[in-house]
Design goal:
Helices cover 30% and strands 15% of the residues. Strands 5-4-3-6-7-9-8 form a 7-stranded mixed beta sheet, with helices on both faces. Strands 1-2 form a two-stranded antiparallel ribbon. The protein is globular and about 40 Å long. The two termini are 29 Å apart.
Length: 243
């Protein structure tokens, strides 16, 4: 979740003999143990199956996604994070009536559609298992941002993005994607990425960290932050004050 960190193979870098500089997420001991459990399950189930996003016991509040694919370094957001961000997106939708673009964050797409099925959302995602979402799914490879469908360009006042890598190259390409999606008028951007991207994100996208701290169902070694290009005031913990 995405919100989500999904490591995408970069064929171009491999073919050119260029060393890939994308930094994979660091896993805590709990996440490594979950990885071992996942691989064991995949071995017994043949790679199929669904996964709970919230990890809770209340079936009424359950949102299901396909199982995290550790080969893509997928990590779904926990329920509190997904519900909090989905509620913020719905608030922005009500004030703009703009369709929503979710870049590489299927968890947030799923919770937003659960919260309000009438909200128009497109999920730009690399993992084709999410084709189950029908016309809402748009295949997206961050390495090819210019290949967006013409109908998507400059059509969104509300965009949420969770870049798949913690690297300069990836953030730059996702930022380019955002510039292509953003409406010429004022657009609202929510960016979920590692704390290490704070300065780079501010430079590329003019975003600032919020007080609310996103969490994943499996703990990550990299601290994650939620950045916005607008001041959410009393929501999302507001912009973090500079010390």
């Amino acid at each position: 979740m995405s919100t989500e960190l999904e490591e995408r193979p970069n064929p171009a870098a491999a073919d050119d003999g260029i060393e890939e500089d994308d930094d994979p997420p660091l896993l805590s001991s709990q996440a490594l143990e979950a990885l071992r459990e996942f691989l064991s399950e995949q071995s017994s189930l043949g790679g199929a199956g669904g996964g709970r996003v919230d990890g809770g016991d209340d079936d009424q509040d359950e949102v299901r996604l396909v199982a995290e694919d550790w080969r893509l370094s997928q990590f779904w957001y926990d329920r509190e994070t997904a519900e909090t961000v989905a509620e913020e997106i719905r608030t922005l939708y009500r004030s703009t009536s703009s369709p929503i673009a979710c870049i590489a964050c299927p968890t947030l797409y799923a919770y937003l559609k659960k919260l309000d099925p009438s909200v128009p959302v497109k999920l730009l995602e690399y993992d084709k298992r999410f084709e189950q979402y029908g016309d809402d799914f748009i295949y997206y490879d961050y390495n090819q941002p210019d290949e967006l469908l013409p109908s998507l360009k400059h059509n969104y006042q509300v965009i949420i993005a969770d870049p798949p890598y913690l690297s300069k190259e990836c953030l730059e390409k996702v930022a380019h994607t955002i510039s292509l999606l953003a409406h010429p008028q004022d657009s609202y951007l929510l960016l979920l990425t590692g704390e290490v991207q704070k300065e780079r994100a501010a430079e590329l996208l003019n975003v600032h960290p919020c007080g609310f701290r996103p969490q994943h169902t499996n703990k990550l070694g990299n601290e994650f932050r939620l950045f916005t290009n607008y001041n959410p005031a009393g929501r999302l913990g507001g912009w973090e004050r500079k010390v």
